[in-house]
Write a structure and sequence with these properties.
two-stranded antiparallel ribbon, five-stranded mixed beta sheet
Length: 454
């Protein structure tokens, strides 16, 4: 094969060692093994620059590639980060040295395609948003444990209210931890918004107040509160990162910094009524995500049915602002794994299933948005229900997520506002298309019948 990158190297990335392979004839030995300490990574960079290597191919193994990747980029060396599934050595031999030489050979011939890589600002935001999701997910584990402690004491309070860390739930749990045991004394703490009647609530607060379960209830509640303190701090850091983005796209001006600071802060249940009314979900970031994203994108992506501030922030952290990195919307939904992985042989379609891989956070956000519109009274909800009738719930989620991702791509890349179609107009258009299809099918069947008769 023709050599496209004569001064290219291949690196097999690992936790304890980095194996670097140079082009044949450039060095003896051709393959060299380095450690993974910071000084070792600096030695790798110096080693590559000694032989005037200007391009490197490396596998995306875990997170072990990131420190070396940053150092190589800072030194001006082009890095192709490739999926490990795309560089499998078909010779049958498997060791780090052979892997590094195989990567170098493929890269020198121009056969490697680099994965999508965010810039430094987006990588920082992505790290913070993913960390916040982890904190929220971990905090919910302690809520489940609180419910378990109540269940073991046969206190059924968690079965008559929807959220034990809401305003009412928090007040009752704190009263239990404070030593209250008389069920009737809890009733003044019950909010008028609770749908259950007071006699049912009073009965649900009678139980066996065992000391060990009271202890676990207290500790789990304290851990839940601690997590939410950390989430608030994380929200502040995310907001700072978004302000940097906004300043970058607005010539250093942050128009609404004062307004954002005046918005309500998050607390684990204490201000649920005020916050939930404004944001609709107690787990959402407690700052003006919508405003920041609208000023950065210059379009309102939350206008798309199913996408709220949280999902929009997740998507922004994963894809950034420059969607031209994907050639068109089809490439974009393919990267999200929201379209069939068609396999064609001999001119026949032999498989059209989704590619078997874990969906990335952006894909999960689009899928969640699709799942949220299935009962909506709009054209996307109607589309979801038609697809569900055709292929089931999973099929409908993927198809609708594909549709939402396509709309998102066009809005962000071409700065187009969301233009929803009226439900009746959409249904009428679908009926007309179906009638036209059936007419064509009828003509086709008539022609086949005439040919058989002839």
């Amino acid at each position: 094969m023709q050599v496209v990158n004569p001064y290219s190297a291949g690196i097999d990335v690992g936790d304890k060692e980095m194996v670097v392979a140079l082009p044949e004839g450039l060095s003896d030995p051709r393959v060299r093994t380095f450690g993974t300490m910071t000084c070792d990574l600096e030695e790798i960079v110096a080693y590559l620059k000694t032989f005037e290597i200007d391009s490197v191919g490396m596998e995306s193994t875990g997170v072990y590639w990131k420190p070396l990747f940053r150092k190589l980029i800072h030194e001006g060396i082009e890095v192709f980060l490739v999926n490990a599934a795309h560089v499998k050595n078909v010779s049958g031999r498997k060791d780090d040295e052979n892997d590094a030489m195989w990567i170098q050979k493929l890269h020198s011939c121009g056969l490697l395609k680099s994965s999508y890589l965010p810039d430094e600002d987006q990588e920082a935001l992505r790290t913070l948003v993913r960390h916040r999701k982890t904190l929220v997910r971990d905090s919910s584990r302690f809520v489940n444990r609180m419910q378990k402690s109540l269940e073991l004491m046969n206190v059924k309070f968690h079965t008559v209210i929807s959220d034990i860390v809401g305003q009412t739930g928090k007040a009752v749990v704190e009263a239990i931890i404070g030593g209250e045991r008389n069920a009737a004394n809890f009733l003044p703490l019950i909010s008028k918004r609770i749908k259950a009647d007071l006699p049912t609530i009073e009965k649900s607060l009678q139980g066996n107040w065992l000391e060990e379960h009271l202890f676990t209830l207290k500790q789990n509640y304290e851990m839940y509160q601690l997590y939410w303190v950390k989430i608030v701090v994380c929200d502040q850091k995310i907001e700072e990162q978004l302000q940097q983005y906004e300043a970058k796209y607005n010539e250093g001006v942050i128009e609404t910094a004062k307004t954002v600071k005046e918005e309500p802060a998050a607390t684990p249940g204490g201000k649920k009524k005020k916050v939930a009314k404004k944001y609709g979900d107690k787990n959402r970031p407690r700052f003006n995500v919508h405003g920041h994203l609208e000023r950065i994108y210059q379009v309102d992506v939350t206008a798309i049915y199913g996408i709220n501030s949280t999902s929009a922030l997740d998507i922004f952290a994963e894809v950034g602002t420059d969607l031209s990195k994907w050639k068109n919307e089809k490439h974009f939904v393919s990267w999200l794994n929201l379209c069939p992985n068609n396999k064609i042989s001999g001119g026949k379609l032999i498989s059209s299933k989704l590619f078997h891989k874990k969906p990335n956070p952006a894909s999960l956000a689009f899928r969640a948005a699709a799942n949220g519109v299935q009962k909506s009274d709009n054209w996307l909800g109607d589309y979801f229900r038609r697809k569900k009738a055709k292929g089931g719930n999973k099929y409908a989620i993927i198809a609708t997520a594909n549709k939402i991702a396509t709309i998102f791509y066009k809005m962000v890349r071409y700065k187009e506002d969301f233009k929803p179609v009226e439900l009746e107009q959409y249904q009428q258009k679908y009926k007309q298309a179906k009638i036209a299809f059936l007419k064509r099918k009828l003509i086709q069947l008539e022609q086949e019948a005439e040919n058989v008769a002839a």
